[in-house]
User: Fold this.
Amino acid sequence: MDLLLDINVAVNICAKRPAYYQDADLALAKCRQEGGRLWLYAGSVQTLEYVTRDALKHTFKAEGQPITARQLHYHTRQVLKTFAEDKQWLAALAAEGAVFDSEDPEDEQLIRALDRFGPGTIKLLTRDRDLCDQYPERTITPAAYLAQPAPPRRLDFIDLAAQQQHLRPQLERNLHRVLHHGQYILGPEVRELEARLAAYTGGRHSITVASGTEALLISLMALGIGPGDEVITTPFTFVATAEVIVLVGATPVFVDIEPDTGNIDARLIEAKLSPRTKAIMPVSLYGQPADLDAINAIAARHGLPVIEDAAQSFGATYKGRQSGNLSTLGCTSFFPSKPCPSVAKPLPWPQPDRTSVFAQYTLRVPDRDALLARLQTAGIPTAVHYPVPLNEQPAYAHLGCTDCTPVARQMACEVMSLTMHPALSEADQDRIVASLQASRIPGADRDLAFGSCRNLSELVGNHVCLLLNESVTIRLRSRPTPAPPPPEARPGSMPTMTR
Ligand SMILES: Cc1ncc(COP(=O)(O)O)c(C=O)c1O
Assistant:
């Protein structure tokens, strides 16, 4: 749970008021420890400064320390600056301005500001008894907060709130700028984004559209691909990749994948070309570019365009070049859970000529379902990208290729993703690692080895390596598992819907 700090609590701490300071300070520490955020209301800055200065003046006086008005002013600012450093500023919105009918406009503003948060996710930390009596569900005193048992710590697979923390001031400023100029469609921000995307990727042109799916669809349309045409692609991807091929009336031709990257295996493409082939559409999966030089060479030999589906790899590089600018056309997605290179923490595991933005942290685990169950019990979020290759799903059964990608089938049975984002705290990383340590899965012959795993060429075949932080590495070794049965015999096959 988050806490919005009433001025009285902030001032108690800033002025170190003896009778009140300690429990307020402990309450803030407890909130931080439990993963909550501490908020200061931006509309209260002037009052905060005024009241803190007054409180500090009294403290100096009580201690018999002389201080000039100028020194007091400077000292107050310094104290507030330090205090605000690990807090979030909650913007004052227009709807919180019209509070003059209220008995206490300042309290009214704070209570209204709480409305922006989900139910039960924030309370106003205050010493104001009247306010607590009036709003018992929305307020809490430091003492009552300290007496509350800690809720179980929740770890989310996608934690946009944690990531937003670093970006909120810019996000709010830019959103407000758009609201004020009112050019919602093709306004100056769109032009700026396109120019910056082109500069970042090195592409000649960058065109923004509504979604990654639409970008793929428009690319196919721009290339004139339609009924009777074939497009080479991977079956191990999000549904959008193949769906757009069908949407233009063409046919996806599925090529199997590489076991170590999950990307389309370029060595198998040529065998699937036909006179109807009009394009190759590789996906740069899990944050790592596909082997685009090899794919481009095949395309060049056959006069075909290549559309890179870079929805999961924006910011990754291939031989020093940016994903999205590695082929005829590149398409990416800004779906909220997609990786953002400016904030992504690079971790190893990609091929030596590539960097990855680790869209998720995806592992291959032979006894995946047992591990998933254990991690779920331990409250560790996981996802499976992807449980069924596209060619094995009913929508593509008519293509007669349900058995033609054995590596993808094997991967679909073994892959699982752990959460991966730059705001993942060390404590949460340790919690994930500890749960994996505890998850010795019965029935498989495996070692759990800890230590540094710098030789990344080890990470092939049935090795699984986690490098969740610099110091902790777990390596699971397992016997190869037999190939799974064909899809008809697999109960619970689900469509590939996870993004
Ligand atoms: C590989 C891949 N292609 C295409 C898309 C579609 O992007 P969007 O969700 O922006 O339509 C996604 C993600 O959602 C994806 O992961």
